[in-house]
Amino acid sequence: MTRRALFSPRFAAAALAGLFLAGSPALAQQCGGDFRQFLAGVKQEAVAKGLSARAADQTLAGAQIDRKVLSRDRAQGVFKLTFLDFSKRVISGYRMKNGAANMKKYAGIFQRTQQDYGVPAPVITAFWALETDFGAVQGDFNTVNALATLAHDCRRPHLFRPQLIAAIEMVQHGDLDPRNTTGAWAGEIGMVQMLPEDIIKFGKDGDGDGHVKLKESASDAILTAGAFIHHLGWRKGEPWLQEVTVPQNLDWASTGLDKTRTGAQWASLGVQPRWGQISANLPASLLLPQGRKGPAFLAYPNYNIYLEWNQSFIYTTTAAYFATRLAGAPVYNAGNPEQGLNDAQMKQLQTKLTNKGYDVGKIDGILGSGTRAAVQDVQQKLGMPADAWPTPALLNRL
Predict the structure, then answer these.
(1) Dihedral, CA atoms, 191, 196, 197, 202, nearest 10 degrees?
(2) At residue 244, what are phi and psi to the nearest 5 degrees?
């Protein structure tokens, strides 16, 4: 599953192509060019940062370009699915059953995690399920090869080069085997799929064996995930997502992640919870993943932590909703959303919006935040319900 490594806005402009300087570590070849020369520059930088030349050699000696990694990096079609399609695909009866079983099996470490970091068991369990099916599917890409490939590629070297350096540090600590450690195509490792830098910074020994082994130890993975989510800003004791019903006379232009009201203000407008109580004093955004006729959710401040984990709106909303299900919420009311756009239509819409001066990012057929914001603005200008859900009717109007 693609994650924060790909979507974090911190790295949106990181790729600086064709920087082939040599000499001091600060001027080592950053990306592209001869692969062995590139690896020599990585070693030089690692040693300058205090890592041993032996660990660098041990890590990089057999590294190779993996063309399958580059292919995966260019094709992220899963994020073209709608919320209903994606959530129905990934939140299975198997995952619900095993999620409940694992929360019971590891109740002790979950309790410790919540005590230390304030992160509830359902939140971590949902990530654990979606990332690796509770450790069953952790990825079969050689981690060093994946990181070296993406660091050498000039699309996002400033993201992946530090991860490759961090992998050398993990090798030096005895926590990564450069020949045999495997994981996701983007270099994430373990049951909750974390990048080497995050493992070094936030890795926790949950089982007391003196090592952080996110591939083998569920206790390590749970505690580490809790520490990482806490670092991202999780607010202890607060909700993250809540399904609601909405009146059909609502001002749809007030919906979306970039607009907030207090829970009490939403309630005064007729927004009602399907489960639990609305948190009256917390700010919340009203999310309509498939428009005003589909499911509706209030997203509280903790929802933003999901966006730090992964910038895909569909993934984060699904993960947050899944966590509410594990916490006892009912299955959502799917409603009857209006027909959306297929891939070709979505690209056509993005092109039209771009020509009108909107910044929708890449013309990729993905309904991301930029496209949603542009759609909502255009809907409002055209006098259409401004629920940010693009339909054939909107495309025809444009």
Answers:
(1) 40
(2) -140, 165
CB 260 within 8 A of CB 284: yes
pTM: 0.89
> CA nearest 196: which of 216, 173, 217, 230?
173
Report the amino acid identity of residue 189. Answer: I
Helix and strand counts by DSSP (H, E) for the chain:
18, 7
| CB neighbourhood size of 190 (10 A) | 26
Burial 209-239, CB ≥16 within 10 A → b, else e: eeebbbbebbbbbbbbbbbbbbebebeeeeb
Measured between alpha carbons, how far is 129 from 318 in angstroms, rounded to an integer?
A: 12
Cα 125 to its chain centre, rounded Å, is 15
Please write the tens of the pLDDT for every residue from 62-104.
999 999 999 998 775 556 899 999 999 999 999 999 999 999 9
Tell the residue number behind the tokens 């230390």, with chain if given.
116
Find residue 243's DSSP bridge partners. Answer: 297
Neighbour count for residue 128 (Cβ, 10 Å): 26
Phi/psi of residue 283, nearest 5 degrees: -70, 145
Distance of alpha carbon 132 from alpha carbon 127, whole angstroms? 8
Has residue 215 got a pLDDT over 60?
yes
**pLDDT class of 15 with cuts at 50, 70, 90:** very low
| Strands of the 272-273 sheet, one edge to the other | 261-262, 283-287, 296-299, 241-245, 272-273
Answer whether 313's CB lies under 8 Å from 363's CB: no
Rounded CA gap, 125 and 116, in Å?
17
Contact 91, 331 (CB under 8 A): no
Find residue 261's DSSP bridge partners.
284
Give all strands (DSSP E) within 125-260, no chain letters: 141-142, 182-183, 241-245
291 Rama sector, left if φ>0, alpha if ψ -120 to 50, beta otherwise: left
Whether the predicted pLDDT of 12 surpasses 70: no
Render 52-99 in DSSP notation, one character per residue: -HHHHHHHHTT----HHHHHHHH--GGGGS-HHHHHHHHS-HHHHHHH
